[in-house]
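Re: the request from the purification team.
They wanted to know what the chain is likely to look like in 3D before they choose a buffer screen. I agreed to run a prediction and write the result into the notebook, where they can find it.
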Amino acid sequence: MAIKRLNYKTNSILMVIIVIGILAVINFLSSRHFVRWDLTDGKEFTIATATKKIAGELDDIVNIKVYFSKGLPSQLANLEKQIKDILSEYKAYAGSNLMIDYVDPSEDPQLERKVQMMGIPQIQLNVIEKDRAQVRNAYMGIAVLYEDKKEVMPIVQSTANLEYDLTSAIKKVTSEEVETIGFFYGTNEIENKYSSIITELEKGYKVTKVDISGEKKFGDNIDTLVLVSPRDMKEREKYEIDQFLMRGGRLVLLIDTVKLETDRLAASILHNNMDDMLAHYGIKTNKDLVLDSSSETVVFRKGFMQFSLPYPFWPKISKQGLSKDHPIVNRLGAIVFPWTTSVEILKEKTGDMRVTELVKSSDHSWTQRGYLDISPGQKFNVGQEKMKSYTLAAILSGKFKSFYAGKDIPAPESDNNSNDNKIISPEKGERINESKDTHILVIGNSGFMADEFLRQSSGNFTFFMNSIDWLTIGDELIGIRSRRVTDRPLKEISEGKKAYIKFIDIFGMSAVLICLGLIKFYLKKRDRFQDLGETLMPTSRHKGG
């Protein structure tokens, strides 16, 4: 008996030793061969191919300084861990060319002043400790340093866009030249509406306001030109834009053909004097407003009352209306275009051009022309036969012919007051009659990227930033930003299917429960009769003789 107990204890000890040994080997191997599976739809926890490429191609040391205070509140402790996880993947691909330091500036007053001069502020956090609310000073910034260049993320509160910001910063500081985005605004009032998008663009580009009314040749230092709601364009301005395109520059045309007064919900036709030039390139922006049954729900105010309702003048374009083949939009969930104009491609003018219809409304769309009534309270009764899909944004790519080929060159604006120099002869100018291979992106709307609207639709922000990236540097950074856009609207179904589903929801489950109850009642009743039959069954007895 004692021998059996000894054998049992020996076997138990050996089993424990074997298990510990196996765990030690697994731990040793996993520390040297780290593998993980990212099962999220957009691979949100895996750095993008573009990031791996940029990190792996570093040929000199880039320093990343993470200025985070120690002892952050519990709700931010996980953020710090996530940042370390992301940076460890950068390090895995960059190797010794990436140096990462985690520093608490509050431990060194001199470093604290340096960090603040760098643009990373000291912030105040509300902390609850020992049942008391307290205010604590902290730093939560990141700086990317290379030679004498630096890019700063002053406050990092989330990792949602951290990979894009880090990769853009590394690319910006290590590039010899930074691409330039030029903005031309139709009016000074319009300029003040786009501060959010400008701030974001400045993280990866040089952004400048463009004046094309002078005598100097325009656009030599600009890679992509964005025209925001151009109005009453002069011939010289059109000529400068044409020649910018001929030199291989990329154009983004945000064309408004309708003037909106949103405070009183009124609209009127707007003239930009660009129709003839755009038609020459193969583009027509119609003087209409597109309405769509698939629309955003909008909050309106009337006096002291507030109400919300689907507003067809704000078409909500789902994945079905976004080009499946173009990287600008093929990973987006939804875009909302407020008060937008339809775009028409003139196929007889485009010839060998590569044309991509990026954004299209649903098949349940229609337009309003002539008298424009944008009030939300009207009855939107349109027959199915009048509905169809409309193009809202398109890209033309290829070699364009100059609109001014064979024409006199318009004089600069400064010469318009003189009587003897209204035009410049073609012989004296430096006109280019055919462009290099380039792109024009045309959108029948400029309000979709205004500050007030970007707060309502993150898809719009991503769409515009993707457009600038693709036109200016290609598609290498697009995948980083697009994969976190997760707006997945429900598929539109007919009213008949809606009624059928509602009927099933209301009565279907009740019917199922009633059937289950009847079945259970029947089974119980059957079992009761069987038990009763067995009780009444006579017992046969056998008597021996």
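For the purification team: The first helix runs from residue 2 to 32.
Please add any questions underneath this entry.
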